[in-house]
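User: Predict the full complex structure for these chains.
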Amino acid sequence: MLKAKSDNHGGEDYLRYLENEKKISDQIIDYSRSMITIINRKYGYEKANATFCRAHRMLTDSIVGRSLGDIWGENTFKAYIKKNIDECFAGKTVRYEASFETPGLGIRYFEVIFRPLSTGNGEVTHLLAETTDIDDLIHSRKAVIEKEEEFRTFETNLPIGFLRVDPEGKIIHANRTFLRIMECGEEVPVLGINVRDFYVEQGIFEMQLDQLAEFNTRSFGRVYLRNCKGREIPCRLSAYVALDDNGRTSYIDFALEDSSRELMLENRLLQAQKLETIGALAGGVAHDFNNILATISGYAEMLQEDLKSDNNHYKKASRIISAVSRGLSLTKQILTFSRQVEQEKVPVSVAEVLKETIGFIKPVLPSGITIKSKLSKNVVWVLADPTQLFRIFLNLMTNAFQAMEEKGGKLAVTQTVVEGRSVRSELNKDIVADEYVLISFKDTGKGMEPSLLKRIFEPFFSTREFGKGTGLGLSVVHGIVTEMEGEILVSSEKDKGSVFNIYLPVLKYTAEPLAGEKRKKILFFSGNKHESRILIIALESSGFDLISANDSDDLYSIFTEPGNSPDLIIYMADTEMIKQEDLAGLYNELKIETPCILITDPDHGVIEENLLNSGIIKQHLLKPVSLRELRDAIQFAIK
Amino acid sequence: MPGILIVEDDLELREMLRISFARKKFTVLEADNGRDAILHFKPSVTDIVITDLIMPDEDGLKVIMKLKEQKPSIRIIAISGGGKVGPGNYLNLAKALGANAVFSKPFSINDLMIKIDELLEPEQHD
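Assistant: Here is the predicted structure of the two-chain assembly.
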C-alpha cells in the first residue's frame, strides 16, 4: 500500500484517485476492530489506527513517532515484544496470544500478528502489527475446555460403567469404571469388541436391542456379563439409543453397575430371614417338646418313688430320666439357635478361652492334623458367656478336623482386632462397634460347595452322613454369635478348605477384683482341666471365690478349720480329685450342710451317680452348662 | 392339707402334676388358662400356685399379678418351657412380678416338691 505505484495514468486525476484510495483504506483500517499499527526498524510507530488510539487513550499524533518502549514501557517491550518484532523483521509472520493491559480496555487477551512489509527488493523495512481483542473468545474457549474436562472427570470417575457402542454393538468408548467392573486391564483392548460378547447369554442382548428399537431408553435390570477374567458379574444395565437426523440409530449408550454386592446382601438378608423363621418355628416346637419332656420325667420320677432302688424296674425309670436329659439338651440347643435364651454375660478374655479350647481338643487330635494358633498379645475382652464361647470355638474346631479327617491338614486359628469402620460393609451393619475381635478358623480340609455353604447355619442341616450329629452345631454357633451382636462369615472352596470368621464387639474393660459385698466361696471339684477352667473363668468373672482340694486331707481341713468352709460345692462328675462316695461319706461324717451342685454329661449314658441318690445334691446340671444355668443353680442352692 | 392350684394349658403335663400332688396329699385345683385361674381363684383354700407362663387367654404373668393382689401371702411357682423370648427371660420377669420360685421345663418333680416344702414352711410357723 505504501509502495508508490508507477503508472501510465498521470496528472491530478490520478493523484486525487490515489488520495481517495488512501483515505478509504485509512478508514477501513480505522474502522477495524483490531488495533493496527505500522512499526519501523527503529521500533517506532509510523502509523496507528483509531482502535489503537482509543485503547491507549491517545491521539494519533502523539503515538506516531514514538517508540514501542515509550508506549508499553521499556521493560515490557524488552521482555515480551522485541523478540517477536525482530523475528518478523527477519521475514516471518509472527502470531501469538497474550494478555496485557491498555489504558482504554484494561487487562484483556489479545491475538497479536506481526506481518513483515517489504520493499520490492525483499528488504523488510516495516511491519504491520494487528492486535485483536480475543478476550471473550479465550474465556468461552476456556469455559468449554473446563466443561469438557469436568465432564471427562465425571465420566471417568463415575461409579457407573459407561459404554458407547455403534449400531452393531461394537464398542466405541468405555469409561474407567466399565474397565474396572469387567476387570479388563491394559492388555485387553475393549475398543472394537462387540458388547454382545460380554453377555453370558447372548440371546438376551438381541432381546435388548429389539426393546431399544421400540423404546429408545430402557432399564434392563440384572444381566450377567462375563468379564475379561472370565468371571460372571451380575450387572444392572440400562441403555439409550441416539438417533441421527434420519431417525436411524447413530450409537447406543450403556450404563452398568456391578450389583454383586447388592446381590450378596440380598442373599444374606434372605438367609437371615430364613434363619429367623426357622428359629421361630423351632422355638415353638422346643416349647411344646419341653412340656412333653416334663410330663415324661414327672411320671418317671413318680415311678422311681414307687419302686425301691433295688427293684429291676427302678433302673428303667432312671433310663427314662436320662433320655429326658438328652431331650432337654436338644431343646436347649434349639432355643439357643433361635436366640430364645438370653445369655448371661461377663467380661471374658477371648485368648484365654481360645487357649483352653485348643488345650481341650489337642489331646484328641486325629493324627495328620496340626493346629497352629496366633493370638494377639494384648488381652482383648468381650462381653460373653465363657461357656458359650468355649462351645462355639470347640464346635468350629471340631468341624475343621472333620473336614480334614481323610487327608489330614492344618487348622490355623488367629485372633486379631479390627476397627469397626473398616469392616462395616463386610458385617453389613448400620451401626458397628468401635472395634471387633476377629477370630478366624482356617482349615485345609475338603471345603464346601456354594450350595452347601448357603445352608450350613440352618438347624438340622448336616453335611455328615445321616444319623451322625444333630445338625444343630453351627446353627447354635450362629445363634450365640448373633446374640452377642457379632457376626459369623464363612468362605469355602471345594477341596481347598474353609474359613470361619467370627467378629465379636470388643469390650473396653480393665480387669479388677469386684469389691463390695462379701464374695461367696465355692469349692470346685474340676473334671477335664480345660473345660473346668472355662467354668472357673465364668464363676470368677461373676464374683465368686473359687477354692479347690487336691485330696481327702485337703478336703478334711477345709471343713474342719474354722472360717474356711465354702458356701457351695460344685462337683463335676468326671473329677479325679475325690470319689463321689468319699464326698458323700465326708458329708455324713462331718454333718456338712453345704449345698452341692452336680454337673454330669448326658452323653455318658444312664446317670447312676452315687451323689445324685445321696440327697445332698441341691441342683443337677447337664453339660454343656451355660453361665446362666450355673448362676440360677447357685442362686437356687445358696439360700 | 395344703391347697395347690395348677395353671397349665398342656393337658398331659397338668394331669401329671395333678397326680403327683395328689399323691403328696395336696388338695389340687386346676385351670387350663390364665383367665379361668383368675376368675375362679379361691384364696381361702389355695396356699400355692404353679403356673405356666405362656398360655392362651391371659398368660401366667397376669395370673401372678392378679392372684398376688387378691392374696399377698400366696406362694407362686412359675414354670416355662420357652417361647418367643425364651424361658430365661419370661422366668426372670415372673420373678420380678412376685413369683417365689421359677422352674424351666422340663424340671425334676422332686426338686419342685422340695421347693414347695420350703415355701410352705414359714406359713406353718405362723
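The mean pLDDT of chain A is 85.
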